[in-house]
Every structure is written in structure tokens, then in C-alpha cells.
Amino acid sequence: MVKKFIVTAVALVFTLAASAQAAVRGSEAEQGSIPSFWKNVVIEFNVGAGTGHDGMSPLEIGGNLGYRFIPRMYAFVHGGCLYGLYDKEHGRRYTKSATLAGGLGYTLFRVDNIDVDLRASAGGSVGNADWKHNVYDAGLAFRIGGTGRIKVNVGVGYRHMTSRTAGIGAYNGFYGTIGVGF
């Protein structure tokens, strides 16, 4: 189910991106300028950590690749390496998983050099993961930086992970991220 969702989301992103790009080119060609495809691409690298819940403390290193198909809205694909310290009956164990998700972001407002985005994503573990799970995120991202291409990203949100691994329960908690984006 999650794989079908991710494949459908990625196909939808590329379809919307292609149609939006064609529409923008058509409207700006009348004005005499052709926009760069890369102006609408969203690239981010980040590190995130979540609050502990039922003995699980997650840490994720990941990135987002997306496209703004209208000025304030974008779709993105998230990939990351999720590490979890699982403490059950004082026996510590580390788990690792590769996570793949798809999501949408919307820029709520811009103040000076700060963009505030609302984001939501859904995905799951892929490959031979120690901790098989489905993940659902909702949060705010603050993109801080000038008119240049590099921005500092700080995010806060809520994450729910449904575990499909025996002995590891579902995770619910708040998380924070920090990283850079282009």
C-alpha cells in the first residue's frame, strides 16, 4: 500500500511539475523571458531528532527533493536513514532503517528573510530494515536566508510511526530538524 502511494505521489509530482512548467513558460514567453527550471526546484539536507516514546528515541539524517508547481506550493520526495535507540527493560539496542516518503509543502507567509512552510508527508521503510514502519509527519519548516540560493532550515512537527517489527511498538512524538536548503 505504501509503495503504491509513493509511486503514485512521485508520478503525480512529475506530471504536475511538467504541466506547471509548460504553463509558466507559455505565460512568460509572452513577456519575453524564459524561467529556469531550477528556480522551482527544492533541495534540502537535514538532521532530525524526536522525543522519546515507549523506549524509542529516533534520529534521522535525510534530504528532500521537490518542485514548486505553483509559487507557494510544492511536492517533495523525502529519503533518509533513520536510527533508533530502543531501550526495553534496560537492554539497549540500535535499529536502522532507510525511509522513503512523499509529501506536500505550502508557504504560509514570508517575513523579510524567513519563509514559514506547512508540510505533511507519508511513507515507510524500504529495503532490509531493522525497524519496519510506516511514517506520517506534519510540521512547520522555517527557511531562513537572504535572496541567495542557500538557506538554513529549522523544522518542528509531530510524527507517528506504525511499527511492523515484533517487539517495537508504535512511535508518537514531536521532532525537530536543522539543515540547509537550496
Question: What labels would you give this structure?
Answer:
182 residues; alpha+beta; 8-stranded antiparallel β-barrel; 61% strand; elongated
Mind summarizing the main beta sheet? 8 strands, antiparallel, barrel
Strand order, largest beta sheet? 1-2-3-4-5-6-7-8
Structural class: alpha+beta
Q: Count every helix, treating DSSP H or I runs of 4 or more residues as helices.
A: 1
Order of helices and strands: HEEEEEEEE
Summarize model confidence as the mean pLDDT: 82
Radius of gyration: 18 Å
Q: What oligomeric state is this?
A: single chain
Q: Low-confidence runs (pLDDT<50, min 5 residues)?
A: 16-32
Q: What is the count of β-strands?
A: 8
Strand content: over 45%
Shape: elongated
Give the end-to-end Cα distance, rounded to a whole number of Å: 32 Å
In helices, the fraction of residues equals 10-25%
Structure description:
- It is a single chain.
- The protein is an alpha+beta fold and 182 residues long.
- The chain is 15% helix and 61% strand.
- The chain has 1 helix and 8 strands.
- It has one helix spanning 2-29, and strands at 41-50, 56-70, 73-88, 91-111, 114-126, 133-144, 151-163, 171-181.
- It has an 8-stranded antiparallel β-barrel.
- The two termini are 32 Å apart.
- The model is unreliable at 16-32 (pLDDT under 50).
